[in-house]
Design brief:
elongated; mainly alpha; 199 residues; single chain
């Protein structure tokens, strides 16, 4: 929602303020930048950005809405043919107000408002730094499941089945032990990477 303006109107009456802002916007679109008082630059900025957004659409309705707000065919033509294509990749922020100091005669603060035509460079998403821990990372304890030994299986099973069960039991004991060693090695490698990154 736009912030309401404070203080007296530019020009005295509402209609005169609308005319002044429309003329400022027209000159901005024709010339690309204008130097005016800081108050007028700040007041014309929302109007100019709103009209640029409409001009980016480029349809007949947009042309009619802009024609209601801006006098003069040259300014409208510049808006639709020069300004709108130059800022088509921008999502907003089409104008920039730069303070220039004070006017010599009456000390009024002067500013320059211009159309931003630089190419938009998308920002890379910021990576969150890894939190450094004061204590070293310990290797995770991986418990191997309890498996019956070959002797336990042999005592319970008949002789023919005992050989097959012994082979299966031996494989089951070796597989979790190897998996536990691999997991511990991965945790140690990750801890070393974190320690190197914090240096």
């Amino acid at each position: 929602m736009p912030k309401p303006t404070k203080g007296p109107r530019i020009g005295g009456s509402p209609s005169h303020q609308r005319i002044i802002l429309a003329n400022l916007a027209a000159q901005l679109f024709e010339h690309g930048k204008i130097v005016t008082t800081e108050t007028r630059a700040k007041r014309v900025q929302p109007l100019a950005e709103h009209l640029i957004t409409k001009a980016k659409r480029g349809d007949v309705a947009a042309h009619r809405l802009v024609a209601k707000a801006i006098p003069g065919l040259a300014a409208r033509r510049a808006l639709f043919t020069v300004v709108a294509p130059a800022v088509k990749d921008r999502a907003g922020g089409y104008t920039r107000v730069t303070k220039l100091g004070v006017r010599k005669g009456d000390g009024a603060p002067i500013a320059q408002i211009e159309i931003v035509t630089e190419a938009v460079t998308p920002k890379a998403p910021a990576k969150k730094p890894a939190k450094a821990t004061a204590t070293p990372v310990k290797a995770a304890k991986v418990e191997a499941p309890v498996v019956e030994t070959v002797e336990d299986v042999a005592e319970e099973a008949p002789v023919e089945v005992a050989d097959e069960a012994a082979v299966e039991a031996a494989d089951a004991v070796e597989a979790p032990a190897e998996a536990a060693e691999e997991a511990a090695a991965e945790v140690v490698d990750a801890a070393e990477d974190v320690a190197e990154a914090t240096k």
